Amino acid sequence: MLKQVMVAALAAMVAACSSTPGLDSSSQVVRVADTLPLPDATEQNAGIVEYRLGPTDEIEIAVFNAPEMARKGQIDAAGNFLLPLIGSVQAGGKTPVELAALIADELRGRYIRDPQVSVNVIEARAHTVTVDGAVTKPGIYPISGPMTLQRAIATAAGLNKIADPDKVIIFRTIEGQKMAAMFDLNEIRSGRVEDPQVFGNDIVIVGESGVRRFLTEASGAPILSRFIPIF
């Protein structure tokens, strides 16, 4: 009888401390989906999404055999970037390759016969992903290239000790509507499920395991600092 009471008490404590998120299909705020469409204004090319520059991004521009044209700095709030000879160019909304082609067109013929231009992203500040919940270092992280769910979690230093890897949610805004889908990280790691793409402004939430949280918290409590016979 005593063992049954102890088992029931343990189960109640585990249930009380569990905060693993769930998705309610009846929610009026978030639309629940099995898979998430691409976010607004995002293009996909052969399965790889190219990063599009935005305000406050720091970039570096170089022109082959023209060191005087090299520039490093931030794209301004209007999406423009100032260069010698050609002045302000519209960088916002373009990929680095598209911006390099635009600059080459401006230089070609007037200043350089066959300009070879490169654009490198030093720090991507306009596009970020929020990683929260049961990860080691929750925070807002820049996206400087193709990003998947596994990479986003790795950027936050991985799962913490109380994480529930089969309860990972991505929140995304599609045409003004908030949407969400839940993923099982174990299935993704095993290769049985495709690692979903993560885009700028996505929010990734990793759920907590009630059992793991209970054991983690109990290990530091004086009253529970010893093994309890429950079977």
Structure summarized in a few sentences:
Helices cover 22% and strands 29% of the residues.
Outline the structure in words.
The structure is a single chain. The chain has a six-stranded mixed beta sheet. The protein has a three-stranded antiparallel beta sheet with strand order 3-2-6, with helices on one face. A two-stranded antiparallel sheet has the order 4-5. The radius of gyration is 25 Å and the shape is elongated. The longest helix is centred in the first third of the chain and has 16 residues, at 2-17. The protein starts with a helix and ends in a 13-residue tail after the last helix. Helices cover 22% and strands 29% of the residues. It has five helices and 13 strands. By secondary structure, the protein is an alpha+beta fold.
